[in-house]
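Q: What changes when adenosine-5'-diphosphate is included in the input?
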Amino acid sequence: MPGEFELIRRYFDRAGLNDPHPAVVLGIGDDCAIIDPPGQHQLCFSVDTLVADVHFPAAADPGLIARRALAVNLSDLAAMGAVPLCFTLALTLPDSNPLWLEQFSSGLASEACAHGVCLAGGDTTRGPLSITVQVQGTLPMGRALRRNGACVGDRVLVSGSLGDGAGALAYLDQPAQTLSSTQQQLLDRFYRPQPRLALGQQLLQIGGRCAIDISDGLLADLGHILQRSGVGARLELDDIPLSDALRREGGDTAQRLALNGGDDYELCFTLPEPLWLAHKETLCALVPCTAIGHIEAGSGLLNTSGEPLTVTGYQHF
Ligand code: ADP
Ligand code: MG
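A: The predicted holo structure follows.
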């Protein structure tokens, strides 16, 4: 079993993870990493921790855990409209199992390459399995998609389809070979969330001001937008996009999973009606986007008939 420094060199200071990046002046190997952000840009960053048996089963495929750990962080950058730059990794491991580390490192490298980010540093400790990734990205000076950017009259929109990640929770502990192909599709959505980076950047370009990524459920996360923006919203529940796999597997619960289930990492955003109509095609070419309601004066969430919607999104405490 490799010692700490050999472990870092072999699995993290390697091709595909810390390939040279023009903005990362100094990466793994010194006391700190150094970043040189492009002119007229601001650095933005976000951190997320995945704890074994809270966020994923401890015995889950290490490559998939690694991908998910990076992807959920990149999703936060997507929700701001940022361009990803690099990330750091704080890893707590029960032991230094070479097979586990090789699979983890390969999964991390393929996710990093797919999104053009490099691993600039980290920390390695022994203890119960836990993975903390911090991502850094850049934003044009003074611009960002913010939770406080929703205005009365805006359309409320979401990318992709909702509820698949939550639909997969029932299968997390089951052996893959016992699952139907639609159940596997849901599981794939859980382990391989697609950070909607291109969509976030495009929203920023066309003049969008407001977005959030859906990690805790549509109602809970849209609720954050409403609270920060001091507005309310009315939703057309029947317009909420559901995948065929979720309709089949979720049956009567599909819509509830889409409203209150987390783990999808799609974007929920608002746009003034004329902006949405002018840019619908460009946005939908990146990922299908669906209008699901309107921002209104007031507070809280209503359905089309004006009845309040109950939020039961996930909270750790
Ligand atoms: P220090 O004791 O100064 O905190 P460390 O011995 O923890 O430094 O780490 C040595 C170098 O290896 C640092 O550049 C650190 O960023 C990097 N590093 C440590 N663990 C990891 C990891 N899991 N992934 C990436 N880089 C790491
Ligand atoms: Mg250290």
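Observations recorded in class: The mean pLDDT is 94.
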